[in-house]
Design brief:
The protein is of the alpha+beta class. It has helices at 11-18, 33-38, 58-66, 68-83, 137-150, 152-168, 176-183, 205-213, 219-225, 253-265, and strands at residues 21-22, 28-29, 41-43, 86-94, 98-107, 112-120, 125-126, 171-172, 192-196, 236-244, 272-279, 282-284, 296-298, 304-306. The strands form four sheets. Strands 8, 9, 10, 11, 13 and 14 form a six-stranded mixed β-sheet that branches. β4 and β5 (98-107) form a beta hairpin. α8 runs antiparallel to α9 (219-225). The chain is flat. The two termini are 15 Å apart.
Length: 307
């Protein structure tokens, strides 16, 4: 089962916020911790990834941007060589040892993921031959893209339902720009993301193996390779994230209950394990996280299982 990321302000962060700072005149003034925390959030409709950071990435971020073309070329070459996949580079974010590069696949599957380009900081050199991805990250993204391709009709019905919810209820989803720039989590839409792995997933593994041998394989052959008899819903999760449309609005329990009841009763959407979150209007700028203490959620260990 997938572990959902949740962002909570930790005690260390609060101690820093409470410690005071120096204003523009060099005078000490107390910081309002509530205001500081609020400033870390932005309306989901306005968030495009700006403000997203990784720990100790300031210097490498500068080096990567100064060598943008080299970084982009290295990453595109990595995905083509290792995964036979063309990608478009959307964003480069410095990390402690290099740059994390967020990409979107362009053919033949659709998904978002990332790779890491190491940087020799002392010599300000891009280590183009040492690009790597987090273990299992790209493989999972490909697996999710394959699920979306094999079960096209079921996903269209899920997409149509969520578009209807957004039209009829006071909720919305993330922006496409935020998915492109800091998503990196496999198959994603403004309203949900998938989570799966080819490891131990005997149903999708034959599809994955067939695709990796020939990415241009027909959809008919991919569907034929899928082993429905051994499908285990705990290895395939659909995580729905919706946000209140209006700023300062609390998550709406009525809307939340409607979505939960609808997903539980629908029989023509993808099988798997569903988690549902209705959040307020904001996301955390530095981490892309939308789940907070006031979020309404139906998730582990109480997910909706559809077999």
């Amino acid at each position: 089962m997938v572990t959902k990321n949740k962002w909570y302000v930790c005690g260390i962060a609060f101690s820093l916020l409470l410690g005071g700072c120096v204003n523009g005149n060099g005078d000490n003034e107390k910081v309002n911790p509530e205001k500081q925390v609020k400033n870390q959030y932005v309306s989901v409709q306005d968030y495009n990834g700006e403000g997203y950071t990784l720990k100790n990435g300031e210097e490498t971020d500068k080096i990567a941007e100064e060598n943008h073309e080299e970084v982009e070329k290295a990453v595109k070459g990595f995905f083509l060589k290792e995964y036979k996949t063309d990608v478009k580079v959307h964003n480069i974010v410095g990390n402690v040892d290099g740059a994390t590069v967020f990409v979107e696949s362009t053919d033949p599957l659709h998904f978002y993921t990332y790779a890491v380009v190491p940087i020799d900081q002392s010599n300000e050199k891009i280590l183009s031959d040492s690009v790597f991805s987090q273990e299992g990250q790209v493989e999972s993204a490909i697996t999710e893209g394959l699920y979306r391709k094999v079960f096209h009709d079921e996903f269209v019905r899920l997409d149509d339902y969520l578009k209807k919810i957004v039209k009829e209820e006071p909720v919305t989803g993330r922006t496409i720009e935020s998915l492109q720039n800091v998503g990196g989590s496999g198959y994603m839409t403004p309203y949900y993301f998938l989570s799966s792995s080819v490891v131990n997933n005997e149903a999708i593994k034959p599809v994955y193996d067939l695709y990796m041998k020939d990415p241009q394989v027909s959809i008919e052959k991919l569907r034929a390779a899928y082993n429905e008899q051994v499908f285990n819903p705990t290895y395939f999760e659909i995580v729905i994230h919706l946000f209140m449309r209006e700023q300062d609005a609390d998550p709406d329990e009525k809307v939340f209950n409607r979505i939960v009841n609808d997903i539980e009763s629908m029989g023509d959407i993808p099988t798997g394990t569903y988690s549902i979150f209705v959040n307020d209007n904001t996301v955390h700028k530095q981490s892309f996280e939308g789940v907070k203490e006031n979020s309404l959620e139906k998730t582990t260990p109480d997910e909706i299982v559809k077999e």
